[in-house]
Write a structure and sequence with these properties.
Number of domains: 3
CATH topology of the largest domain: Arc Repressor Mutant, subunit A
Radius of gyration: 19 Å
CATH architecture of the largest domain: Orthogonal Bundle
Helix content: 55-70%
Structural class: mainly alpha
Oligomer: single chain
Strand content: under 5%
Largest sheet: 2 strands, antiparallel
Shape: elongated
CATH superfamily of the largest domain: Winged helix-like DNA-binding domain superfamily/Winged helix DNA-binding domain
Order of helices and strands: HHHHHEEHH
Length: 162
């Protein structure tokens, strides 16, 4: 790759353009109007969507189970669930098998919308992965893992010099 810097900078520029384009295209344009209105009204954001997707497809779940599935801290998920509950997008009910547990679920009308939306977004990823050869899929996943690690380190103030 020559001296490394030129190619890396050119590649970085192209990747940033592609990521920007991707983020603009995925920025909630596909969210059905009833959900979009709830998001506007109750100041919800993209961070709430994974909670809704998991609950629509796998719920009802306890907050702890939901946190495990999302790979987030339980207090963080609890705050997200509180926001969604205030917006009327999730409901809590006592677990009939263990009355000490509270389960969170998405009400039926929202569940249908969210399941369809999750399937659309998963379909996008499935079609993308299907177009890649096995080695390219592995490299794609590795790149995303590294990007997620770096984003985590940066958000925690732990930027690692290279």
């Amino acid at each position: 790759m020559g001296d490394g810097q030129y190619e890396t900078d050119a590649e970085l520029g192209e990747l940033l353009q592609l990521l920007g384009l991707l983020m603009r295209r995925l920025r909630g344009r596909d969210i059905p109007e009833p959900l979009r209105e709830a998001f506007r009204r109750d100041a919800l954001g993209p961070r709430h969507m994974p909670v809704l997707f998991v609950l629509a497809r796998r719920g009802p779940l306890s907050v702890g189970e939901l946190a495990t599935r999302l790979g987030l801290a339980t207090p963080t998920v609890s705050l997200l669930v509180n926001d969604l509950s205030r917006a009327g997008l999730v409901e809590r009910q006592e677990d009939e098998r263990d009355r000490r547990r509270t389960l969170v679920s998405v009400p039926a009308p929202h569940r249908r919308l969210l399941t369809r939306l999750a399937d659309q977004r998963l379909g996008l990823m499935r079609r993308t992965l299907a177009r890649l050869e096995p080695d390219a899929r592995a490299h794609f996943a590795e790149g995303l893992r590294i990007l997620a690690e770096e984003a985590g380190a940066t958000s925690e103030g732990q930027v690692t010099p290279r």
